[in-house]
């Protein structure tokens, strides 16, 4: 039998090609698979992702099905879940292909173990695998094949000293398919090692693991017990590891997590928000502590109990999940147990029913443990094209990526790029109008920023060269106003630098915050450090923070646990290690998550909020313009962000005597950011925006496209001219007709964010295309060259 718990990423190229052939064009094809798989929230694809899949048909070797399977693989979809989806679709042939492939998957069942042996002994390494008939084995020492080592068992003769510890690995293959075992180390102790002095002969006794730990799936509050037993002479010692890091005090054969009273509080509230964490124990919060979170725990700590002292009260949280293993050793030998996964989910029912996969990933609606939001609202701001400071590249793609993910979580999202000081303030004011009792409010900011005396400031694009707090927005002031709205959860994700601003020596006067126990700050970097964005050749990419945040954002986790996972992931990036680390500040006392369902308090409040939000997201309706010459022009609209709109013109019909005609936009309002290089282009790609695939799929072909930025600056209705240029048969000269068009105040322009008479931005203040002002640089030749640290107060790398 095959292993259906493997991820779909384990499928071979031939199997994927067969599935693509069956699902790319069939009526029960890839779109139906996306719909069925989306029944579980973490596998639900956004409209943008589906559009990205559909555009693969335009590539010579592109496949929508393969793109969809890659998206599901990134979300750790298993073969069992994929098989269930295909079965519910009624696609028998695809089910058969997948079933036969699973039975042919090679899986290592017995891994070789590392050993420490005496010089002159013979060492046996074993690797067994399951899979299709005809499996072949090949052992390697380092990168070199071991001649003749083609059996599951490898005998290594240590009579000739091996010198440094040798590393061995086994490749198991069948045809083109293959799998590698894990590495095993053989370390040879020379004759002058301690065993010769003691008279003990390790080759006679050795060390053997009798009982391996087993993987387990638990609910919050369940006991966690792992056990590893070994036999050896001298008697073995034990050290448990979680995620390959030693667990403090876990030196017994049995690992247990328990709750026990401590004598004192741990840590202090070093930051602007006085955090009092309710997570159980210092080890459960280790990820946060490693990233500079000044947390003040309650008077309960989490410790690991030795087997001789069983606990009276046992408790685990989702923070205890991870991969566990045990190192077993004595004076002469060292062995490692197998690595096992401990999965811990939320408790589903008051009666204590266990956590299960599938539809039981989150508490059932109506259960006593379920928490609700009365609504969810997010304001995302990305500042890129600064007038007096270095331009940034990542905020546009960061804001767009988070917008798509938050919409999947039922957030009402307002996404804005390149705001001046007054515009940022008015955007926050409108955001606050959408908040009310029990609403989850999320503010994400990407751009230049700084932090003085524990107070954070967001820098608008029109800030002067030597800006101070008077030119910026104070994050803590926004928080105070959010608390006045009696929100259910206040989340701040600040993707900016937190260096000290030496031009600002004023100590911020921030009033006392209410003790609401619902505040979460996720900083992209630590205090007095910079945040970075990555440069990739030929394209824009997310900043470091969002690169890892978007991997976890859809998870059904308490928001603080989710950010802890992001912090752990960020720590694996070699380029920014020692330069940037996520910092979490929180006083959240309940298990609030972004995935919590919405239960509105009243129809009137919900309707008013929906209306206010919808005002900022209404596009003009497509219209047809008929000119005197008989030509009909279609005028259409698409949105990139709440303040960036695409207008396209298309010739629908023309009289027979008109041979050539084209419709262009002219006389666009001066207050908008309109780059002439981004108007009347023959293809969406010529607009220079990396987000073209997200909206161009809905646009017809044979159009002229124009990109309008800064809609928040419109002080009146958007009015422009459609200029039709055409030529009659056998006539050399073009004829021109013009038609004035007014489309009202589209998108965010309806909210009047711009002051009555704003000053114009200088010409250097940025163009309609973020790429034209600051082209992405290529990767350097060394890790140091691949980072571009910003000036103090900057957003990125």
Automatic annotation (TrEMBL):
Residues 106-173, 202-343 form the Ig-like domain. GO terms for molecular function: cysteine-type endopeptidase activity. Residues 374-501 form the Caspase family p20 domain. Residues 274-295, 754-797 are annotated as: Disordered. Residues 760-780 have a biased composition (Low complexity). SMART domains: IG (SM00409). InterPro entries: Caspase-like_dom_sf, Caspase-related_regulators, DEATH-like_dom_sf, Ig-like_dom, Ig-like_dom_sf, Ig-like_fold, Ig_sub, MALT1_Death. CDD domains: Death_MALT1. One of its GO terms (biological process) is proteolysis. This is Paracaspase 2. It comes from Gallus gallus. The lineage of its organism: Eukaryota, Metazoa, Chordata, Craniata, Vertebrata. The gene is PCASP2.
